[in-house]
Amino acid sequence: MEEVKAKMPRYYLAWAKDDAIRKKGANGGFVTATLVSALETDFIDVALVVKKKSVYEGIPVLTNDPEEIKECSGSLHCVPLNLTKYVVEYAAKKRIGLPTKPCDARGIIEQAKRRQVSLENVYMVGLNCGATLHPLRMREIAAYYGLDPDSVVREEIKEGKIFLVSDEEGKEKEKWMKIDELEEKGYGRRDACKSCVTKIPTMADLACGNWGSNDEKKTFVEVLTDKGETLFKNAVDSGYVAIEEAPGKGIETRQRIDAGMQKRAASWKEKMDALKALSRSERFEFYVGALKNCIHCGACKEVCPVCACEEDAKCTGLYDERDSYAISMYNLVRIFHLMDSCIHCGQCEDVCPVDIPLTLIQRRFSERMQRHLGYTPGMDVTKKPPLYETELGWSAEAE
Amino acid sequence: MKTNSSICPGCSIGCGLYLLESEEGGKRKVLHRTTSPMNEGKLCRFGTDLHTYYEREAMINSVDGKEVKQEEAIKAAKESLKGMKPDELAFIALPGTITNEEIVSFVSLAAEFGCENVSFGFERFFSVVPEEAAYIIENGLPFSEVEGASKIILFFLDPFVHYPLLARRILKAKKNGAKVIEVSFAKNERGIADETVLVKPTEVERIKEKKELFEDSLIIGELTPYTNPQFLSLMLWLNASTSSRLFLLKPFLNSTGAFLLGRDGGRKDLFEILEGVERGEIKALYLLETDIAGAMLGGEEVAETIPKLDLLIEQNAFRTHLSDTAGITICSEPFFMKKGTVVNVEGRVLEIGGESEKGLGIMESIGKGRKYEEVHEEAKKRLGLGDSEISEFEIAVKREERKFEVVEPKIEKEEGGGAEEEYFLWYKTNPFFWNGIRAKNFVEISPVAMRELGLFRGDVVEIVQGEGKERMGFKISDLPPNLVLSEAKLSIKPLQGLLTRVEARRAE
Ligand SMILES: Cc1cc2nc3c(=O)[nH]c(=O)nc-3n(C[C@H](O)[C@H](O)[C@H](O)COP(=O)(O)OP(=O)(O)OC[C@H]3O[C@@H](n4cnc5c(N)ncnc54)[C@H](O)[C@@H]3O)c2cc1C
Ligand code: SF4
Ligand code: SF4
Ligand code: SF4
Ligand code: SF4
After folding, report:
1. Residue among A53, A293, A353 whose CB faces B42 most closely
2. Contact call for residues B428 and B163 (beta carbons, < 8 A)
3. Whole domain around residue B90: which residue ranges?
4. Is residue A394 part of a domain?
5. Does one domain contain both A211 and A233?
6. Is the CB of A338 inside a 6 Å radius of any atom of ligand 3?
7. If exposure means fewest CB atoms within 10 Å of the residue's CB, which of A6, A62, A82, B119 is most exposed?
């Protein structure tokens, strides 16, 4: 079946027709082939992809070279990047296609609400996401497996296990362990990922993954928007991608895994909530104890995918270095200002030089606020952030 | 969008990062590099804003104020240097942005002209330190040792300000059960210490009475060109006479590289060289990536001395406070573009990540004419790396603890006028301070001082010492009554170390 019929069906198994792309791709190379086709058929001006430097390292690459997109295929689980700010800062006015984990897509949607980008121009090829790991924690896992971290040549996460393959003097060695067991021992995913309940990027244009696929080299694809459908159709029609209808069993499997993952994330959230058991005054002490260490480096604001303020931001504007409060206006304003829009991606905590548990603190305020306001940020571009002063107006028609 | 893997040159920690540049407009941005073991993807404000550091005005190639081609500036430098007597020459490089390879080349360049006045900023300490203890000033310690310590003494060091990426290591050590004691003029405002030993500026000597406190500890202090040598002796004495270890942080990224590779340079003290210029004995100065007037306290004084020189050669990527007066300026590449290595304070040999050999090439054109590979191999060999590959994950330059003895030091009291209104100004150094950027326009004073000086919010305080005078805003902090803290470099030159008597008053 090569032809896509309008809006039906929603679920496919898809793969790159080019054998090299398919082989190198994480699953069927569908994502790469789709981006290449979009570029070559003038759907997009540039693609933003992640280039592998090593098993532990990847860098964002903005490119209009199809060969470079091909070079960047494959999934990097130790690259906890969020791509939102690169779209905003380097390609806001371009037609761009990019792979988006749920937190990337949610960040981009929040930026679109604040008119930093126009979603019309952004093609979000969503990736299901079980987690990213801090690269140095993955090195520790390698060492725990008895492997020399520098000799690890491949990593893979499947069936709830982390697989590492090392190459020592030409001899390959594979080791694995269940994620649950690793995490019991203190190794494993970033805290934000452990408790992230959005595993399938339903807010993107397409959602791609291996859940529900019956073949390691076929990508399971859900078509989510009209834009996604056009992009998908273009990839098929231009001969880059082969497809078949996803079997019902696959769709069910995917839903079952997603539900299971969400449940586990919710229980991690409970488990990690160091604040829940504390009394009000103890909680206050906790906030003071943690936030007094802030050195006002500004990194948390810089990387936050939903923050759209520039130099004249409220958090920096109201902060006076000469104030002598344990919790500065910078932190107070940031917590308050992001209460309706924080997507709990953990980027701020990743870069905090004094290791303040920012996701936990931000979550404590924002989750209850978002529940109260009935608003989940980053899911729907037409929904106004409740604390936003003006109606979006433009967004419903424009997007 | 171009992504350059790089190292922050802000201090001796050498945090890893990426510098992104847009292809079109050169718009730069810093990206956190999570794989970097020095900082695990975290940066202080200096590192987060590093792109602005690279946006300073670029150096030009010039001879006598006229812009020329680089070859001409190099030729002029070579000929002028040849025309000088060896003892009239001096070579200075504060090792903030210079590579190991450049250090090797710089030392051999000086030697080629017979010059023995070579300074990397720390030479005066080698006369204070017994040979067996030199390893303490040369080598630092891996941060894993900090995290694993059971007792840490912060010796006049506020990690959050002085070396921000050290702070999280100490917080981790605390989580691991370490006891943290601070010995300082002022209590850490973030309360990182479990116990504080407050020292009066006039009673530093009395720390010796607390010797037992240092048993079984890791003492963490800092060594800068301004450290009072007596103070260093005190740290060494406390270290030698207790079962402790001493870890000295340094402000310049490649201090360890400069210590180990700059050994043959003649080791002339920086301040002695500057005095030599003042006396007219040193007539030519080669400044390698060193904004001497910007980096020094009392830089104005240095700037006034410079016209006494017959020849000033500046090799730098950016213009400095002296570039207008320099006879020859030669433009090298900014640090992130360099091909080469540095050694951080933990002993990791780090590749900078760039491709350019321009700076090294300039010195090799004036001097021996060696290729990068030759100089790189020499640097590797002398750092004890042999043929092994360079990896940021290895502590390649290791230190071995040795026993040594130091005589009990005497700390001279700073003699002041004894006037009641006297205050002590303590410079709290930080990456901005050493890189000539004034990041703060206020000083910190105690509530008592605020009352005594009749200050109200919005007032300006005047700090005076001899010729030096500064008007600054102020912040009220929990400080001893007569202490004034400054994270910014003021036009006040300390007499000994980073502490000095000043007068403070409300500015009219
Ligand atoms: C961190 C991560 C976790 C994932 N977890 C799951 C999961 O639990 N369940 C599931 O079904 N699928 C998951 N996926 C998706 C899956 O691994 C494949 O990416 C997807 O099936 C598409 O395969 P493909 O062969 O079509 O992609 P490819 O053609 O290989 O293209 C993948 C694209 O993703 C980009 N990329 C790689 N790493 C990252 C990153 N860290 N952040 C952003 N972009 C990146 C690459 O540059 C490339 O453009 C995950 C992907 C990632 C990156
Ligand atoms: S926060 Fe969620 S979407 Fe983002 S990397 Fe972690 S698990 Fe994936
Ligand atoms: S505040 Fe932190 S967790 Fe929340 S969206 Fe911003 S970076 Fe992510
Ligand atoms: S990243 Fe951490 S230290 Fe930096 S401003 Fe944010 S909270 Fe403060
Ligand atoms: S100044 Fe020092 S602590 Fe700050 S980012 Fe640079 S190297 Fe790291």
Report:
1. A353
2. no
3. 62-122+255-382
4. no
5. yes
6. yes
7. A6
**Considering only CA atoms, which residue is closest to atom 2 of ligand 3?**
A348
Q: Structural domain tally of chain A?
A: 3
Q: Which residue ranges have their beta carbon within 6 Å of ligand 1? A: A 25-32, 49-50, 58, 72-77, 79, 81, 99, 101, 127-130, 132, 208-211, 219
Query: Same structural domain for residues A376 and A259?
Result: no
SS3 of residue B387 by DSSP: coil
Cα B11 to Cα B39: distance, rounded to the nearest angstrom: 12
As a 3-state breakdown, chain A gives helix, strand, coil percent values, each rounded to 5, of: 40, 20, 40
> Are A167 and A34 members of one domain?
no
Determine the Cα angle at B373 with ends B369 and B377, to 5°: 110
A353 preceded by a cis bond (ω within 30 of 0): no
Which residue, among A215, A342, A307, A202, has the nearest Cα to A262 in the 3D structure? A202
Regarding the beta carbon of A362 and ligand 3, being less than 6 Å apart is answered yes
Which residue in A122, A36, A111, A115 sits closest to A71, CA to CA?
Answer: A36
Would B406 be classed as within a structural domain? no
- Identify the three-state secondary structure at position B435: coil
Grouping H, G, I as helix, E, B as strand and the rest as coil, residue A71 is: helix
Q: Do A322 and A367 fall within a single domain? A: yes
B393 → closest Cβ in A53, A61, A150: A150
d(CA A108, CA A100): 9
Domain assignment of residue B435, yes or no: yes
Please determine, for residue A398, whether its predicted confidence score (pLDDT) is greater than 50: no
Q: Which amino acid is at B382?
A: R
State which of A267, A288, A318 marks the end of a domain: A267
* pLDDT above 90: residue B425: yes
**In terms of domains, do B96 and B209 share one?**
no
Sign (positive/negative) of CA torsion B78, B81, B82, B86?
A: negative
Cα-trace Rg, chain B: 23
- Domain of A176 in residue numbering reads as 135-188
Give domain status of residue B417, yes or no.
Answer: no
With 50 as the cut, is the pLDDT of residue A1 above it? no
For residue A169, report the distance from its CA to the centre of ligand 4, in Å.
43
- pTM listed for this prediction: 0.95
Helices (H), B185-240: 229-240
Name residue B182's amino acid: E
CATH number at residue B175: 3.40.228.10
Residue A377 lies in a domain: yes
What pLDDT, on the 0 to 100 scale, is given for residue A394?
Answer: 52
pLDDT of residue B414: 61
pLDDT tens digits along A91-108: 888 999 999 999 999 999
Please count the structural domains in chain B.
4
A356 lines ligand 4 (CB under 6 A): yes
CA-A297 nearest atom, ligand 4: 4
CA dihedral B26, B30, B33, B39 (to 10 degrees): 140
pLDDT tens readout for residues B7-38: 999 999 999 999 988 776 566 789 999 999 99
Q: Angle CA(B2)–CA(B3)–CA(B8) in degrees, nearest 5?
A: 135
Q: Is A92 on the interface with B (CB under 8 A)?
A: no
Contact B15, B8 (CB under 8 A): yes
